[in-house]
Amino acid sequence: MKIDVLSIADCPNGDTALARVQEAIQALGLSKVELHSHVLRSSADAARWAFAGSPTILIDGSDAFPSDGRTAELACRVYPGELALEGAPSREQLVAALRMRLS
Length: 103
What we know:
Blueprint: E1 2-8, H1 14-27, E2 34-40, H2 43-47, E3 56-59, E4 62-63, E5 79-80, E6 85-86, H3 91-102
Protein name: Thioredoxin-like protein
């Protein structure tokens, strides 16, 4: 399994998303995961990926949280949280997304 965390420069949620992905991988005891972090610096960079705003998390090339929001713009992204929108998915949301890909 390959996971790519895509963020834009100065995104306050890129590091949070990466840390939560690492926590989810550990929680599931996954050992054969390639985890990569990419900082997108231009619209051309964003256009090369299935980018839907920063941060976007791809599992084997597909958005872990699919939306109709694919963009080549260097934009932010939000995720539904327990009480409000959040800048990154929770560890629990990531665990659930990874479990779906494993089944």
